[in-house]
Design a protein that fits this description.
Layout: H1 4-32, H2 49-56, H3 58-91, H4 97-109, H5 112-125, H6 132-156, H7 160-168, H8 173-202, H9 205-210, H10 218-228, H11 233-255
Helix pairs in contact: 1-11, 2-11, 3-6, 3-8, 3-10, 4-6, 6-8, 7-8
Protein backbone atom coordinates (compact mmCIF):
# COMPACT_ATOMS: atom_id res chain seq x y z
CA UNK A 1 0.00 0.00 0.00
CA UNK A 2 2.86 2.39 0.68
CA UNK A 3 3.91 2.03 -2.95
CA UNK A 4 0.52 1.68 -4.59
CA UNK A 5 -1.12 4.79 -3.10
CA UNK A 6 1.60 7.29 -4.14
CA UNK A 7 1.72 5.70 -7.60
CA UNK A 8 -2.05 6.00 -8.02
CA UNK A 9 -1.98 9.60 -6.80
CA UNK A 10 0.80 10.38 -9.26
CA UNK A 11 -1.08 8.80 -12.15
CA UNK A 12 -4.25 10.67 -11.18
CA UNK A 13 -2.38 13.97 -11.06
CA UNK A 14 -0.88 13.29 -14.50
CA UNK A 15 -4.30 12.43 -15.90
CA UNK A 16 -5.77 15.68 -14.55
CA UNK A 17 -2.84 17.63 -15.98
CA UNK A 18 -3.30 16.12 -19.44
CA UNK A 19 -7.04 16.72 -19.24
CA UNK A 20 -6.44 20.36 -18.33
CA UNK A 21 -4.06 20.81 -21.27
CA UNK A 22 -6.28 19.01 -23.77
CA UNK A 23 -9.59 20.50 -22.59
CA UNK A 24 -9.56 23.41 -25.07
CA UNK A 25 -8.97 21.01 -27.97
CA UNK A 26 -11.66 18.62 -26.74
CA UNK A 27 -14.11 21.54 -26.67
CA UNK A 28 -13.10 23.26 -29.92
CA UNK A 29 -13.33 20.19 -32.14
CA UNK A 30 -17.01 19.33 -31.48
CA UNK A 31 -18.00 23.01 -31.47
CA UNK A 32 -16.57 23.38 -34.99
CA UNK A 33 -19.17 20.86 -36.24
CA UNK A 34 -22.06 22.58 -34.50
CA UNK A 35 -25.16 23.60 -36.40
CA UNK A 36 -25.77 26.61 -34.15
CA UNK A 37 -25.08 30.12 -35.39
CA UNK A 38 -23.06 31.05 -32.34
CA UNK A 39 -20.42 29.47 -30.10
CA UNK A 40 -22.11 27.08 -27.69
CA UNK A 41 -21.04 23.94 -25.83
CA UNK A 42 -22.19 21.22 -25.99
CA UNK A 43 -22.76 21.65 -29.74
CA UNK A 44 -26.22 21.48 -31.25
CA UNK A 45 -26.59 19.29 -34.31
CA UNK A 46 -23.91 18.40 -36.85
CA UNK A 47 -22.83 20.52 -39.79
CA UNK A 48 -19.80 21.30 -41.96
CA UNK A 49 -21.11 24.76 -42.79
CA UNK A 50 -18.46 26.56 -40.77
CA UNK A 51 -15.59 24.86 -42.59
CA UNK A 52 -17.25 25.81 -45.87
CA UNK A 53 -17.65 29.33 -44.53
CA UNK A 54 -13.97 29.54 -43.68
CA UNK A 55 -12.81 28.50 -47.16
CA UNK A 56 -15.37 30.81 -48.77
CA UNK A 57 -13.97 33.88 -46.99
CA UNK A 58 -11.14 35.11 -49.18
CA UNK A 59 -9.57 37.29 -46.50
CA UNK A 60 -9.19 34.31 -44.10
CA UNK A 61 -7.76 31.88 -46.65
CA UNK A 62 -5.33 34.49 -47.99
CA UNK A 63 -4.26 35.27 -44.42
CA UNK A 64 -3.70 31.55 -43.74
CA UNK A 65 -1.49 31.18 -46.82
CA UNK A 66 0.46 34.30 -45.89
CA UNK A 67 0.97 33.10 -42.31
CA UNK A 68 2.25 29.71 -43.49
CA UNK A 69 4.58 31.27 -46.05
CA UNK A 70 5.84 33.81 -43.53
CA UNK A 71 6.36 31.21 -40.80
CA UNK A 72 8.35 28.94 -43.14
CA UNK A 73 10.58 31.83 -44.25
CA UNK A 74 11.08 32.96 -40.65
CA UNK A 75 11.86 29.41 -39.50
CA UNK A 76 14.58 28.97 -42.11
CA UNK A 77 16.28 32.28 -41.40
CA UNK A 78 15.95 32.12 -37.61
CA UNK A 79 17.23 28.53 -37.47
CA UNK A 80 20.34 29.27 -39.52
CA UNK A 81 21.18 32.57 -37.82
CA UNK A 82 20.29 31.31 -34.34
CA UNK A 83 22.37 28.14 -34.73
CA UNK A 84 25.39 30.12 -35.89
CA UNK A 85 24.96 32.58 -33.02
CA UNK A 86 24.66 29.74 -30.49
CA UNK A 87 27.84 28.10 -31.77
CA UNK A 88 29.68 31.41 -31.60
CA UNK A 89 28.50 32.20 -28.06
CA UNK A 90 29.18 28.72 -26.66
CA UNK A 91 32.28 27.64 -28.55
CA UNK A 92 34.27 30.85 -29.00
CA UNK A 93 35.37 33.80 -26.89
CA UNK A 94 33.22 36.48 -28.48
CA UNK A 95 33.91 40.07 -27.49
CA UNK A 96 31.24 41.27 -25.03
CA UNK A 97 29.69 37.81 -25.11
CA UNK A 98 27.31 38.40 -22.21
CA UNK A 99 26.10 41.66 -23.73
CA UNK A 100 25.52 39.99 -27.09
CA UNK A 101 23.63 37.13 -25.42
CA UNK A 102 21.47 39.61 -23.50
CA UNK A 103 20.74 41.53 -26.69
CA UNK A 104 19.68 38.35 -28.50
CA UNK A 105 17.44 37.30 -25.60
CA UNK A 106 15.84 40.73 -25.12
CA UNK A 107 12.83 40.13 -27.48
CA UNK A 108 11.67 37.39 -25.08
CA UNK A 109 11.29 39.81 -22.15
CA UNK A 110 10.28 43.05 -23.86
CA UNK A 111 6.51 43.65 -24.11
CA UNK A 112 5.04 43.01 -27.53
CA UNK A 113 3.52 46.49 -27.65
CA UNK A 114 6.93 48.08 -27.12
CA UNK A 115 8.48 45.96 -29.86
CA UNK A 116 5.56 46.66 -32.18
CA UNK A 117 5.85 50.43 -31.76
CA UNK A 118 9.62 50.26 -32.25
CA UNK A 119 9.28 48.19 -35.43
CA UNK A 120 6.55 50.52 -36.70
CA UNK A 121 8.74 53.61 -36.27
CA UNK A 122 11.80 51.92 -37.79
CA UNK A 123 10.07 50.43 -40.83
CA UNK A 124 8.14 53.65 -41.47
CA UNK A 125 11.40 55.57 -41.71
CA UNK A 126 12.96 52.91 -43.95
CA UNK A 127 9.84 52.96 -46.18
CA UNK A 128 9.24 49.20 -46.10
CA UNK A 129 6.25 49.32 -43.75
CA UNK A 130 3.26 47.09 -44.58
CA UNK A 131 5.36 44.74 -46.71
CA UNK A 132 6.17 41.06 -46.43
CA UNK A 133 9.81 41.85 -45.65
CA UNK A 134 9.00 44.10 -42.71
CA UNK A 135 6.88 41.29 -41.20
CA UNK A 136 9.59 38.75 -41.97
CA UNK A 137 12.38 40.76 -40.34
CA UNK A 138 10.31 41.53 -37.23
CA UNK A 139 9.29 37.89 -36.81
CA UNK A 140 12.88 36.69 -37.27
CA UNK A 141 14.04 39.00 -34.48
CA UNK A 142 11.27 37.75 -32.19
CA UNK A 143 11.84 34.05 -33.00
CA UNK A 144 15.64 34.19 -32.87
CA UNK A 145 15.98 33.94 -29.04
CA UNK A 146 14.16 30.59 -28.97
CA UNK A 147 16.59 29.06 -31.45
CA UNK A 148 19.64 30.48 -29.69
CA UNK A 149 18.39 29.22 -26.33
CA UNK A 150 17.60 25.65 -27.41
CA UNK A 151 20.74 25.18 -29.49
CA UNK A 152 22.93 26.66 -26.74
CA UNK A 153 21.44 24.22 -24.23
CA UNK A 154 22.39 21.35 -26.55
CA UNK A 155 25.95 22.61 -27.03
CA UNK A 156 26.73 23.23 -23.36
CA UNK A 157 27.09 19.51 -22.59
CA UNK A 158 28.31 18.59 -26.07
CA UNK A 159 30.91 15.73 -26.03
CA UNK A 160 33.81 17.50 -27.74
CA UNK A 161 35.84 14.31 -27.56
CA UNK A 162 33.78 12.91 -30.45
CA UNK A 163 34.81 15.80 -32.68
CA UNK A 164 38.41 15.31 -31.68
CA UNK A 165 38.15 11.62 -32.49
CA UNK A 166 36.76 12.40 -35.94
CA UNK A 167 39.52 14.90 -36.61
CA UNK A 168 42.18 12.44 -35.45
CA UNK A 169 40.86 9.92 -37.98
CA UNK A 170 41.52 12.35 -40.81
CA UNK A 171 38.12 14.02 -41.26
CA UNK A 172 38.12 17.63 -42.39
CA UNK A 173 36.43 20.28 -40.21
CA UNK A 174 33.48 20.34 -42.60
CA UNK A 175 33.15 16.55 -42.46
CA UNK A 176 33.37 16.57 -38.66
CA UNK A 177 30.64 19.18 -38.47
CA UNK A 178 28.41 17.32 -40.94
CA UNK A 179 28.85 13.80 -39.56
CA UNK A 180 29.47 14.40 -35.84
CA UNK A 181 28.45 17.86 -34.63
CA UNK A 182 25.27 18.36 -36.61
CA UNK A 183 23.62 14.98 -35.82
CA UNK A 184 24.25 15.38 -32.09
CA UNK A 185 23.01 18.98 -32.06
CA UNK A 186 20.04 18.17 -34.31
CA UNK A 187 17.44 17.76 -31.50
CA UNK A 188 18.18 21.26 -30.21
CA UNK A 189 18.16 22.72 -33.71
CA UNK A 190 14.85 21.04 -34.58
CA UNK A 191 13.30 22.17 -31.29
CA UNK A 192 14.40 25.73 -32.00
CA UNK A 193 12.97 25.53 -35.53
CA UNK A 194 9.61 24.34 -34.20
CA UNK A 195 9.54 27.14 -31.63
CA UNK A 196 10.40 29.67 -34.36
CA UNK A 197 7.58 28.41 -36.59
CA UNK A 198 5.03 28.53 -33.77
CA UNK A 199 6.13 31.97 -32.55
CA UNK A 200 5.93 33.42 -36.06
CA UNK A 201 2.64 31.76 -36.95
CA UNK A 202 0.90 32.82 -33.72
CA UNK A 203 2.35 36.33 -33.42
CA UNK A 204 -0.46 38.87 -33.04
CA UNK A 205 0.61 42.02 -31.20
CA UNK A 206 3.60 42.92 -33.37
CA UNK A 207 1.76 41.88 -36.54
CA UNK A 208 -1.07 44.31 -35.79
CA UNK A 209 1.40 47.21 -36.03
CA UNK A 210 2.98 45.98 -39.28
CA UNK A 211 0.05 44.65 -41.30
CA UNK A 212 -2.13 46.66 -43.65
CA UNK A 213 -5.29 46.38 -45.75
CA UNK A 214 -3.59 44.16 -48.35
CA UNK A 215 -1.24 42.33 -46.00
CA UNK A 216 -2.71 40.58 -42.97
CA UNK A 217 -1.73 37.41 -41.12
CA UNK A 218 -4.22 34.86 -39.85
CA UNK A 219 -4.05 35.87 -36.14
CA UNK A 220 -4.81 39.46 -37.12
CA UNK A 221 -7.72 38.37 -39.32
CA UNK A 222 -9.07 36.16 -36.52
CA UNK A 223 -8.84 39.10 -34.13
CA UNK A 224 -10.72 41.34 -36.57
CA UNK A 225 -13.29 38.63 -37.27
CA UNK A 226 -13.87 38.03 -33.56
CA UNK A 227 -14.46 41.74 -33.01
CA UNK A 228 -17.64 41.68 -35.08
CA UNK A 229 -18.69 37.97 -35.24
CA UNK A 230 -18.67 35.03 -32.82
CA UNK A 231 -19.88 32.09 -34.91
CA UNK A 232 -18.23 28.60 -34.93
CA UNK A 233 -16.07 29.58 -37.90
CA UNK A 234 -13.41 30.43 -35.34
CA UNK A 235 -13.61 26.88 -33.98
CA UNK A 236 -13.27 25.51 -37.52
CA UNK A 237 -10.16 27.65 -38.04
CA UNK A 238 -8.72 26.34 -34.77
CA UNK A 239 -9.25 22.72 -35.84
CA UNK A 240 -7.55 23.39 -39.17
CA UNK A 241 -4.58 24.95 -37.37
CA UNK A 242 -4.36 21.95 -35.04
CA UNK A 243 -4.31 19.60 -38.04
CA UNK A 244 -1.62 21.67 -39.76
CA UNK A 245 0.52 21.60 -36.62
CA UNK A 246 0.15 17.83 -36.23
CA UNK A 247 0.99 17.27 -39.90
CA UNK A 248 4.06 19.53 -39.69
CA UNK A 249 5.38 17.75 -36.59
CA UNK A 250 4.68 14.32 -38.13
CA UNK A 251 6.53 15.25 -41.33
CA UNK A 252 9.49 16.55 -39.36
CA UNK A 253 9.63 13.35 -37.35
CA UNK A 254 9.26 11.23 -40.50
CA UNK A 255 11.84 12.89 -42.72
CA UNK A 256 14.18 14.57 -40.22
CA UNK A 257 13.58 12.99 -36.84
CA UNK A 258 14.13 14.39 -33.39
CA UNK A 259 16.42 11.68 -32.06
CA UNK A 260 20.17 11.65 -32.21
CA UNK A 261 21.41 9.50 -35.10
Amino acid sequence: MRRVVPKCLGMGFQALTYLYLLAPILIVIPVSFSNATYLVFPPRGFSLRWYVNFFSLRELTDALLLSVRLAVAVTGAATVIGTMAAFALVRYHVLFRNSVRTLLMSPMVLPGVVLGIGFLIFFTRTRIIHTFWSLWLAHVIVALPYVVRTVSATLVNFPRVLEEAGASLGASPVAVFRTVTLPIAKPGIMAGAIFAFIVSFDELVISIFLTGPRLSTLPVEIYNYLEFTSDPTLAAISVILILLTVIAVALLERFVGFNVV
